[in-house]
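Input (structure):
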């Protein structure tokens, strides 16, 4: 995969190679402890009618951690902005979980470049800090504190167990193939840094979200965590024009474990905002 090098660090990304001038542009941002590969079903379903790029976020997949350590949220947005600038014209943006939070920040920083924004449960936890969602904030603050402590004690596996138990369910890590268990554990230090950044972000950023004018799709599972329900409530308040869909029976990792179900909503939205006919699903 190509590697983008900037003052903020390096970024590896997948490009589907579509070079048609009239093809709409799409950037896909994956969840924490995953990689661009989580979007393979969506990429296949959309086909070559779209020019699609899907980066490996910092510390994931083939994108290394910078020599100076974990980048700040602003530095990671600078990396994504550099990739955005390589794509001509307006770009549609899709993100899940941590990728959803990054998509929200990128849209806030580059509103004129983002044609539409679709998010499945973006973990914009900073929005909870000064909100009325007290129980939701308390829940995720405790989860983050425990995670950061485990990483600080060099117990990446215990952090990985707790991380997936919270987001997926008890025994989720142990149910994975060994190479995937090792990969998730290798991401836990990065996730700890993400928790710190996400819980600090909010406040002044919340006001900027109200001015976003692009079409927005906000997806949430009915079986998600209390913290995520709080974030979604705040986003629905701030993004009052967003199209909101609650997926009955779905949880936080539905884009990975139920990709066809989630992708059907994403494809409908993307085809609508891009003015294109819907592709035939295999």
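Output (sequence):
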């Amino acid at each position: 995969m190509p590697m983008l090098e900037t003052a903020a660090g390096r970024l590896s990304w997948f490009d589907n190679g579509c070079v048609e001038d009239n093809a709409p542009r799409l950037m896909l941002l994956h969840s924490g402890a995953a990689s661009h590969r989580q979007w393979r079903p969506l990429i296949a379903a959309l086909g070559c009618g779209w020019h699609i790029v899907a980066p490996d976020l910092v510390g994931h997949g083939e994108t290394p951690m910078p020599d100076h350590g974990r980048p700040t949220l602003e530095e990671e947005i600078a990396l994504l902005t550099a990739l955005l600038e390589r794509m001509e014209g307006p770009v549609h943006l899709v993100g899940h979980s941590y990728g959803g939070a990054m998509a929200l920040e990128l849209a806030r920083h580059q509103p004129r470049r983002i044609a539409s924004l679709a998010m499945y449960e973006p973990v914009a936890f900073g929005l909870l800090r000064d909100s009325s969602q007290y129980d939701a904030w308390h829940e995720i603050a405790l989860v983050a504190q425990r995670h950061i402590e485990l990483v600080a004690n060099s117990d990446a596996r215990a952090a990985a167990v707790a991380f997936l138990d919270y987001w997926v369910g008890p025994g989720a890590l142990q149910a994975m193939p060994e190479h995937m268990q090792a990969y998730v554990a290798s991401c836990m230090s990065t996730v700890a840094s993400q928790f710190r950044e996400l819980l600090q972000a909010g406040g002044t950023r919340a006001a900027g979200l109200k001015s976003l004018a692009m079409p927005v799709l906000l997806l949430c599972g009915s079986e998600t965590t209390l913290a995520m329900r709080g974030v979604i409530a705040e986003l629905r308040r701030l993004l009052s024009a967003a199209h909101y869909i609650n997926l009955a029976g779905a949880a936080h990792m539905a884009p990975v474990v139920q990709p066809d179900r989630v992708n059907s909503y994403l494809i409908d939205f993307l085809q609508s905002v891009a003015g294109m006919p819907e592709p035939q699903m295999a």
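Notes: The chain has twelve helices and eight strands. The radius of gyration is 18 Å.
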